[in-house]
Amino acid sequence: xxxxxxxxxxxxxxxxxxxICAQERVIRMPEPPTRSQNIADEDxxxxxxxxxxxGGSTAMENMKNVAMAGAxxxxxxxxxxxxxxxxxxxxxxxxxxxxxxxxKNHLAMPLFVNARGNILSDDIRRTVPxxxxxxxxTIPDGFFLTPSIGLRIGEKRNAFLVNVGYTLRHLKAxxxxxxxxxxxxxxxxxxx
Length: 192
Description:
The chain is mainly β.
């Protein structure tokens, strides 16, 4: 009988304790958007700019290649997260340019138009792949085209950039050298 009372009291205490520890859980579902999807979001539209530094080298077989390092500033208009258009300028340094380029000056100034955008939405991600294309001229050398892909790491309006790209550029070269060179570039930057 004593054992039965102890078991009964233990069950009663367990029931009371379980009832006290029970919590009411409310599950809230996400609310539908309050504005139309066609209306541009303030974070997605307006001026943007980026500062990038990087380097690379031409990669021509059986030819003297040219290493390069540089920095650039790009500013423009952000239509949405998938398309930004801007203009940029920079400085480019060719450490071994006297081997190929027909000038003793190791510096050049790129002027270019840039288009870029996210490949995936940055609404729920902090790391987003993006594409970028620079088309312009390098003073005094000439035309260049640099498409690239990379990663944006950070917020919508403040992100670090890492990208790799291909470059096709015209160089003022000595007569015995080809004037069109292609190569690879690696860039680091910050976009705001």
